[in-house]
Amino acid sequence: MPSSASLTRIIGIANIVVVVAAVVGLILVPSASRPGDRPLAAARNPLPGVQPSAQPVSTTPPGVEATPEFARQIKANEAGLVPVLMYHRIIKKRRASIDRTPAQLKQELETLAKQGYVPVTAREFATGAMPVPAGHYPVVLTFDDGHPSHFGLDANGAPVKDTAVDIILRVAAEYPTFRPVATFWINRTPFGLQDQSQQATAVQWLVNHGFEVANHTWSHPDLAVMPKKKVREQIVRIERLLKKLGAPPDKTIALPFGAMPHPRKLARSGSWDGTSYSFAGVFLAGAEPSVSPFAKDFDPLAIQRIQSNGKKGECRKWCSQYWLEWLNKHPGWRYVSDGDPNRISVPVKLRGNISPKQRPQVNAY
Known about the structure:
Blueprint: H1 4-28, H2 68-74, E1 84-87, H3 102-115, E2 117-120, H4 122-127, E3 137-144, H5 164-174, E4 183-186, H6 196-208, E5 212-215, H7 228-244, E6 252-254, E7 269-272, E8 275-278, E9 281-283, E10 306-307, H8 320-329, E11 344-346, E12 362-364
Parallel strand pairs: 1-3, 1-10, 2-3, 3-4, 4-5, 6-9, 11-12
Antiparallel strand pairs: 7-8
């Protein structure tokens, strides 16, 4: 893996590139219409015809008690790297570099499933409560901006075809170990819906089916140039909206453009107008896999993500195709689950990489 110094330079450049791309995509490019262009139906029969694997997901894998011998057999490494993938619009004709087509999303998810990756939510990752079976690898699927192409329900109460949720469910139906979960970070009009009852139906459907819906600020501003009070207001207004829509208290936030407020602790906790917020994880728009949430180097205020894209242009060395290929070629760097939520299994040589407060749980081999 590249040195820390070179990675720091790469990450800095890559964050700038990702921010510029996001600005172009979100400001200069017109929004696509919502797939299906139909109002949300009540979720009384949410998934007609979908296989059982697409129903509400289990949060706990089958019970495993990891021993050093077992961890050695499956090459467990819970100090390894985890890809946190960042998606924006999923549309048939890409209008910005950060857009992906439904076919591209499906192909990437199928690749992940075939390679043994198991999706977890951003909340599960940030808190270290990742229900990944032994020998498999966690991946975090994240979608920014609550775009209509991420989710909608058709007149029959099923996810609109070729939305992100529809594609995730179809891949999960084909690959049983691929948990149908993801994180959707929303702004003030989740999934392009103006009516609050429809917003509530959408959010509650997602939450009831194992997805996470969380904070991406009210109006998607650059928090780095905002006064502290305005930063807190941007975050709190979405916290209030989520509560009103029936979402559980959220534990994660994605910073618009990956831009950190000053001081950066404002992104993690604060209050405005009598409402407080506190997050387990603050996610950037970064350029490399994240370190393990158990690692001593894990920074919950600056969790790296990888833009989903190929290897052309600015993505030559820091988007999803590059990093997934890199992790395949360097399996010793990848997070491999031991399937035991009570232990953190690592090779003996990596014991020192685990956070001191987590070391009583270490199962070294």
